Amino acid sequence: MSHTGHSGESPPASRRRRSRPPHAQEETAEAEAAGERLRQLNIEEGDDRERNRMIRSQYRELISTVQQNREAMLNSKSNRLTEALEEANRLFDGVCRAREAALDAHFLVIASNIGKEKANELHSEMSAFDSTAFAEDLLTFMGINRTEVEESDDCEDAPGGFLPSDAWQTMGEEAPKYFRRAPTFHYMMGSFKSEPPAPKQRIERQKKASRGKAERAMPAQLKRMEESHQEATEKEVERILRILQTHFENDPNTPISFFDFVIDPNSFARTVENVFHVSFLTRDGLAKIKLDEDGLPIIEPLKPSEGGEEDSRAGARNQVVISLDQKEWKEIIETFQIREAMITPLYQSTDEDMETE
Amino acid sequence: MSQRKRSKGLGYSQMTDGEDDSIPTQVERRSQDQVSELVQFLLVKDQKKIPIKRADMLKNIIREYRDAYTEIVRRADRTLQEVFGLQLVEIDTKRHIYILINNLPRAEGEHLCRGKEKEKMGLLLVILSFIFMKGNSVKDSALWEFLHLLRVYPGKQHSVFGDVRKLVTEEFVRQKYLETTPIPLTDPPEFKYQWGPRAEKETSKKDVLSFVAKMQGKDPTFWASQYSEAEANRATT
Known about the structure:
The complex is a heterodimer of chains A (357) and B (237). Chain A has 357 residues and is mainly alpha-helical.
């Protein structure tokens, strides 16, 4: 009958075929008997199908177990492979169709592969090759220092010891002795095409050289300028303070006329500089400028601890802008008959300033 | 006239006749040029140690003189041996793939090698020893487990070798030092490693065994089955 042709999965067409006969059976007795037989076969077929499905699932489970526990099976001490084979043998008793038999064959292939591997392992164990000891000996040859403990993130899996950076070079010196390797062919002078880049390099180098020298010259000049700006000012201010103090000590009762002090009859520029430097003194509270009875400014040095606080509290600190042009300068010289500068000039000229070093 | 000039250089026929563009002479002359070209071609191709295919030789050098192919190759091999001390060896007779090996006995002393060649050979020697001592075939997991002990990890960049996994699974395999075949019916797929044909030609089981013996400070006969295998192998090559 058509049922024997079915291979388990019932395609929709055959399902329909099976459902049709029951209707036909109602019409004739023959058909009825046939239908009865059909139904019985259907039930058997159902049982068969159920049973075969179970066998198939059991085989698949067995195969998956074997595959996943491959390493465990390979262990020479385990009997699991034999057990699996016995299980398969048992299952095979229930097999009556090609589909399940195919699974059985699949399992057999896997089992025999594992069997072969097990046999292979037996072979190497006979020759007793200890790969761990071999690795240790290799490390020793490569110059491992076992007294130092290597501090690295793979400390967990590496045996204690510091492997030097030329470890593999050491191995590389030994290795070629064991190979008949053809030395590789390379042109000694390189290939033809590499010539153009060479001149470019030369030009670049020259540029770099000249740039370097220029840069080197720069800092030296800058430094000197810096010094002449800041430190020179400070030094000058200090010097002027000392001059002022000296004069005052010599004659503490006579106040020094501001103009007498700052004006340099020989140079307007230096006069301006003197005023500039003196302004620092007053700002820092080291000197005091006030007006005398005639309304002319006088200057005297201050001890910073002394009058400083008082004056600031009393609000005696004022800001004054002094303007002086050449005409006024000359007039002052005339009026006060200033013959010589109280603040002796430090340098002859600004040019010489640079040269003295 | 020009023909005579050329033939003087190559030392062929002393025909003074203007009609000496007879076919054999031309072909001979041309084939001698081709031998020289082939020798150069092989030397350059060997730089990366990737085996040379006959198809490449035919396409680039021999071209229309395919019939003279065997003769040209034979003469090129002779030149390589006599001039350079190298040998052209066919490692795949079916697909006609060749390599160059060193014909001279190994000299003690400085071996001139570029880049990381020497270190790579060191690693290769270690791998080949492991494979041989473990029965000529190892699973990739076993190989990496062994290399772990030497601080070489497949997932980690190595200070000398860089991408080690690539070096072992690609470079060494392409150069035919190692051969890798998948193990059937494994999921996830596993591979096994064996000696490649280049390794078979460039070194021997006996040499590798003596290396292992030297490292471990033992006599090669300590490993009985490997020793007998190496001796048998020596007899056949």
